[in-house]
Amino acid sequence: MGAWRSFAALDDGRRRLAAEAALLLALIRIGLWILPFPALQHALDRCARWRAGGRSLSAPEPRPGELDQVAWAVEAVARRLPGSTTCLAEALAAAAMLRSRAHAVEVRFGVERQNGRARALAAHAWVECEGRVVVGAVGNLAAYAVLSGSEHS
């Protein structure tokens, strides 16, 4: 089944989530090319606040399955949207979507360790929320030394 048919077969809620993920992934990819990273993060934070309708982003109002739904949308769209399948774009999109739903999230950046040392060019980004990895889980995540985290609420 083609991507359009798959999209059309979704219920309204999943269709909205997939459309939001597609828009964010496309904008993030463009932003990564043309903006300094701090400027992109600031723009995503402002977008999340705007989407949250001004309500506090630090007081989560979790809905059952919301983390899984956002993870599904970002990962499903990323597989089908050319050029957006980097872990960084996916992590930023998921973080923005979750922040707009008033979840406190942390975007983590790490490099893979080999014999206790960081290896060059083996980097990864993922999103943690409510004590679990939402987007970017890989089998060897424990092998990554966390360089920094970007906590947003």
Short structural summary:
With 153 residues, the protein is of the alpha+beta class. It is built from five helices and four strands; from the N terminus they run H-H-H-H-H-E-E-E-E.
What descriptive keywords fit this protein?
4 strands, four-stranded antiparallel sheet, alpha+beta, 153 residues
Give an account of the 3D structure.
About 3% of the residues have low confidence. The chain is built from five helices and four strands, in the order αααααββββ. It has one domain. Helix 2 packs across helix 5 and helix 3 packs parallel to helix 5. It is 48% helix and 24% strand. It has a four-stranded antiparallel sheet. The N and C termini lie far apart (38 Å). The radius of gyration is 16 Å and the shape is globular. With 153 residues, the chain is α+β, with helices and mostly antiparallel strands.
